[in-house]
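Recap quiz, item 2
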Amino acid sequence: MNKEMLKLGSNRSIIRELFEFSKLKKAELGDDKVYDFSLGNPSVPPAKEVNESIKYIIDNKSDTYNHGYTSAQGDNNVREAIANDLNKRYNTSYKKENIYMTCGAAASLCITFRALVESKNDEILAIAPYFTEYKVFVEGAGATFNVVPADLNTFNINFTELEKTVSKNTKAIIVNSPNNPSGVVYTKENLIKLASFLNEKQKEYNHPIYIICDEPYREIVFEGNTVSHIPSLYDNTIVCYSYSKSLSLPGERIGYILVPDKCFESKELYLACLGAGRAYGYVCAPSLFQHVIEACASLTSNMNEYKKNRDLIYNGLTKIGYECVQPQGAFYLFMKALEDDAYNFMEKAKKFNIIVVPSDNFGVKGYVRLAYCVSTETIINSMKAFEKLYKEYNK
Amino acid sequence: MNKEMLKLGSNRSIIRELFEFSKLKKAELGDDKVYDFSLGNPSVPPAKEVNESIKYIIDNKSDTYNHGYTSAQGDNNVREAIANDLNKRYNTSYKKENIYMTCGAAASLCITFRALVESKNDEILAIAPYFTEYKVFVEGAGATFNVVPADLNTFNINFTELEKTVSKNTKAIIVNSPNNPSGVVYTKENLIKLASFLNEKQKEYNHPIYIICDEPYREIVFEGNTVSHIPSLYDNTIVCYSYSKSLSLPGERIGYILVPDKCFESKELYLACLGAGRAYGYVCAPSLFQHVIEACASLTSNMNEYKKNRDLIYNGLTKIGYECVQPQGAFYLFMKALEDDAYNFMEKAKKFNIIVVPSDNFGVKGYVRLAYCVSTETIINSMKAFEKLYKEYNK
């Protein structure tokens, strides 16, 4: 068998491993005694229209429509609904032909990478801190994964490092804002600077360099911050979206790829995405949930819950003495570990039944990620444990 | 972008293209004037328990359970339910650890291929006639696709050709019975002969050669015929299953990979499958439908409908004068075209609003595939058109 795949299957994502650990621990101690901040599994229920739509569709439409194959690119009506929703919000003029329905953001990314990559020399960059699976997806598509080191002060884009990292082999750069794991929203100034830098580099190397926006957290953003629509700032932008977080449907695997007309050879690029989806066995996105999205494209879960959690956890932790950047979006907080080795810190936290993810997997050392998409009680109850953990280091 | 992916996206599967053509034609002429036999989209509704389960789950379980992430390998309860169901039917002793929930049979196959393939030298074989997308999936996983030419008399396994095709590079052979496109069920004698042949070859080459069973049609089988459980006949068997056809849920993308303990290094192979799924971006199988399958694992749609259709179409066509092997399972009929060039025949059929798929894509020349998972009326109404088509060739 393939040794690389065996390795990927054996050294599972640490997040998933912690999730399994937490399930065991909860079974042992009870749900309320384990403070599991490991997984980005939304705690806020979907908009009520989601379950209502499911029932409505089942009761009123035919089984073939509900559960049958759609076109590979997705049902026409859902793609139109999504294009219309984007157009309203971003003053754009997308059509259904720009949208390819997928099985979630991971599928969107893998398919986009596969569509773009021609050889192992092609490099796809991520900006640290970055979502740990990017490396797996990029290498899975046959490209080389490369990292732009973090700006540890702001966790925005580090342009000094970016200039050093971009080369003639750069095929694309992944932009993930609101960011997993830092919760930071890249400023519009930063994104404009990125666009102008990449435009220069495209000229210099005489080939397109794509921005691939991984934006599942687009709608989870707190007061005063706005998420820029990057295709309006930079032509060669492909958007990979998922309803996992905004509609709290992570298990349903439903999202899309947006290939705007302004992309270089956009029609061909769209077709190459369809081809890559075909080669990976993605026949179509789950049909019932395509129809649900048609009804719910403009809705989100109640995002105020995350804001409340953000305030509770950020204020609570900083009051104890922990250091962290205030999250502006998503539902993650990136906290400085109390020792250099984030793995050791994670292990110590486990002793207090606190489950956090060490930052090494996100391309930064010495931090941990807390996914605060948990019940408010979990956050409140966890504070005593965080205090004890802090005291361990400050005896 | 990647030229190979662009090609795959541009030269779409002919089946999907005919499906799109048929949609346009139906919009023009009305549904009842187009006899579309192109797509294996089940016409029989799902067992009523499917929609009932959806509603029950939504009304009685939590949103996080219903729509949240499951473990990558799938929810424990559904995997247990599937293992139990298999054990009852095949007198086996599978456990949940043998089952990996996937987004349907295409995903199962792509993931299995990727898990096995180490280099371009590895060959994966299909037995003609074969499902046209195998080539795409095998090559997508980086292996060489090779075909065992058909036994045109029975459409069972052609052993003379098999011996010529198997080599030291053979990594696996795909077995698809009941067969798409022929509707033939491989006899137990043939499968035992295959097992003994492969056991010899494994010894000769000193490495495992896997049978990969693609069995979405396992439950669609007509009187007198039985589908053998191949893992009971041959140790190195991996089963790729989907509920698309048996439960009429092709759009929902729900199925599994079964890696029996008897497989060589089965635990590692299972992990390599998980790794391949991860590299392809399959985070988990759609969660709501995992729970639905837990409730419906032992059920099927009403298969008598396909039997009725099989009799109508087989008897009708042979009465007119067409030649075809009587289908024993699945919902396809493989008919000899009335000229050598199946594409020309397809085009002529289109003029009578009959939509059939030319056999060249299935690895055999001069036939067409008819998917008779359509309404009984479509079959009855189509007969006049088939008569006219026949007369065109026999003036």
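Chain B touches chain A through 82 residues (CB under 8 Å).
The first strand of chain B starts at residue 35 and ends at 36.
End of item.
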